[in-house]
Amino acid sequence: MPLEMRADCERCGADLPAEVGGAFICSLECTFCAPCAEDLDERCPNCGGELLDRPTRAKKLHEKYPPSTERRFKG
Fold first, then answer.
1. pTM here?
2. Cα separations (Å) of 75 from 9, 13, 66?
3. Maximum Cα–Cα distance for the chain, whole Å?
4. Which end of the chain is more exposed for a tag (fewer CB within 10 A), N or C?
5. Residues of the chain with pLDDT under 50
């Protein structure tokens, strides 16, 4: 099953396109931008898990495996 590839940072709302690097995720796919991940000391505030670089998804695969369009930022 492919990653959900969430569309935004859960902490600040920054856009995180699936085909661009710079997103960080935990094992539960909580998603944060690089500045927020750094501010969080690479620890997920939701589960306490480690935040790691999220892989990118090639744009040619978006039709078959579409990234999420649901926004998670609650700000």
1. 0.92
2. 11, 8, 25
3. 34
4. N
5. none
